[in-house]
Amino acid sequence: MRNLDESIKGLREHYLELLKNLNRVLDINIEMLEKSSFDKTLYGECLIVEDTINNFEVKIKEDSIFTMARFQPAAGNLRLLIMLINSARLIERMGDILKANLKIIKAIEKDSPEMKKELKNIIYPIAIKTKNIYEGYINAFIKSDEKILFSLLTMDEEIDTLTKEDTETIIELMKKKPENIQSGTDLILLCKKLERFADHILHLVFDLIYILKGENMRKIELLEERKI
């Protein structure tokens, strides 16, 4: 019969598998953006991987609750278990964002062969930066390294700046050719979805910092906003 340490070790392993599956869906997004085209085979793989993500999310939630009820862990482990539940739920939503991106790519390819080239020119660089942040988080989780986590906070600002610049570029393209308004709107939507994905990564980062250092970054952020 497993003890508390073994249960937590198993949960961490399941959580890491969850992270890796989401990373694969992100890679599928990047592959389609680089090719500037929708790929049915990759989309089919995405559906299977997303189902795996959903299953892991449910298992992590159930096993974490069972562990809390059975072992009544002390504060540190209790915070970790709650983080795993909340983060797994957030990762499941992040998978939904990435799956929705693929349908938008398909729509752009269908509606405007001219604008679909901007999938690689404009959206692809955002996706690459987003992947760098996400893989940084995975690395920090594996190594329990808060220094990596703090370095990711500035990278999110780069995503915000790039999204703003790219949105302005897309609007100019739409002004030049009104027939591209629909595809341009979809391109902007992709930018915003990747920006939201990056924001979700930051929430994961904040929670992990709290586990490693005991600093509630979300509380600090809210207090700073109130001062402003």
From TrEMBL:
Name the source's superkingdom.
Bacteria
Q: Where are the coiled-coil regions?
A: 1-36
InterPro entries (alphabetical)? PhoU, PhoU-like_sf, PhoU_dom
UniProt-listed SUPFAM superfamilies: PhoU-like
Q: Which keywords, in A-to-Z order, does the entry hold? A: Coiled coil
An example Pfam family from this entry, by short name, is: PhoU
Where the record annotates domain PhoU, the positions are 38-99, 130-203
| Protein name according to UniProt | PhoU domain-containing protein
Species source reads: Fusobacterium mortiferum ATCC 9817
